[in-house]
Amino acid sequence: MNSLTTTRATEVVLPGLVEPDGLRVTARDLPEPAAGQVVLRMEATGVSFAEQQMRRGKYYDQPAFPFVPGYDVVGAVTAVGPRVDPAMVGRRYAAVTKVGAWASSLLLDAADLVPVPDGVGSAAAETVVVNGVTAWQMLHRTAAVPAGATVVVLGANGGVGSTLVQLARHAGIAVIGTASPRHHELVRGLGATPVDHRDPDVHGKIRDLAPDGVHAVFDHVGGAGLVESWRLVRRGGTLVSYGTAATKDEDGNSRLPVLKSIARLAAWNLLPNGRSAHFYNFWAGKRRPAAFRARLAEDLTRVLGLLADGVLTAQVAAEFPLAEAHAALALAESRTTAGKVVIVP
Known about the structure:
By secondary structure, this protein is α/β, with parallel strands linked by helices.
């Protein structure tokens, strides 16, 4: 241990099925970091779609209430446990946590930390942690889209969507991006061709732009629209489903929409038409921790490097202090933002 000072942590607790203003702000003393652990002082966390689902009890494998949300975090190490390099203290790192990051300080395994490059602000880095890894893996690992291809990104103004557009354009891939008209200028600025997602003939408009079909569709909406996304894919192309936003307000079992999507995609994969369909799961492969951590570290390091080099531009929708996490969550749920809502100390 490099320090025996007790760390007092402020935490935002999701107590149950509540509106955003039902979040509770609490405080507790963190235990000393155990072997392999560090204390990380949060400098930025954020609101992902996962927290919006968790508030409704709709995230696939969320913990039992009450718990501290927070899918990812950027911060500085303030203390280390046994068998951790003391030189980590004072340095900045990013980590994907799934839960627990809406806190002023938190205990993490040192093996889960990825260094943040100097010169990259913590709020900027936060926008590409889970969003950047998700976008990178879907584009380059799941769909393996080649340069010169055309893809469709649903929700191109969102946290994952805007990052996906930038990564695709950097790789020489043309992008058609759906968004509300208020965000079309942003989508155009990122290098994509915008289409109004509320247009009743949105899929027809996309077909007009890509009459031969597209190499990949990245669909976070799911539900009935997944069929239309599948129809946009050309022979040799891929549909990547990575969410079920269409059903987030529906009552019932939180796992059912995901399982339905997976079953539908599996059935489509059996068709002899040269197309493939995948459900992207960020946590796939977690049962092999060493390989999972290595892949995550490789991909996050690459995305943070692109941010440091100016290839990616951080899309920060707004910043809120931790004590106003309820307002951050409400804004993210309003569907009026572009980029990611960030929470700072």
